[in-house]
Design brief:
Elements (H helix, E strand, L loop, with lengths): L1 H8 L6 H20 L4 H28 L11 H23 L6 H4 L2
Helix pairs in contact: 1-3, 2-3, 3-4
């Protein structure tokens, strides 16, 4: 179950951004932008990055627990793994920031004007 949730949150599937990560980040950013309009970009990027990194971590932990029955054969989640996962997540977050800067993604109130 942990690995499945991690896969859904990770940027490894082509559909997860459209149906999971972007909506989660968008709702978080929109709610904050109701009180602090200038915070939309930073909250969106932070939430999006967090969902991707959390997805990688959960995927690794879930697969590791499922495949490795004994403690000696478990694959360690090292600093190198974390750095790689954060780098991949930062790349995707950068793409989202570009979409926000191009005003493809905007707070709801901008669409309603």
């Amino acid at each position: 179950m942990v690995a499945c949730i991690g896969f859904v949150l990770s940027p490894l599937s082509w559909w997860n951004d459209l149906y999971v990560n972007i909506p989660i980040a968008y709702v978080c950013a929109w709610l904050v932008s109701l009180f602090y309009p200038d915070a939309f970009l930073s909250v969106f990027a932070g939430s999006y990055l967090a969902t991707n990194v959390l997805g990688f971590i959960l995927l690794h932990k879930g697969i590791n627990k499922t495949l490795s029955k004994d403690e000696q054969n478990k694959i360690r989640y090292t600093g190198k793994n974390i750095i790689r996962d954060i780098a991949i997540s930062l790349f995707y977050t950068g793409l989202m920031v570009v979409l926000i800067k191009l005003q493809v993604i905007r707070p709801v109130q901008h669409y309603l004007k």
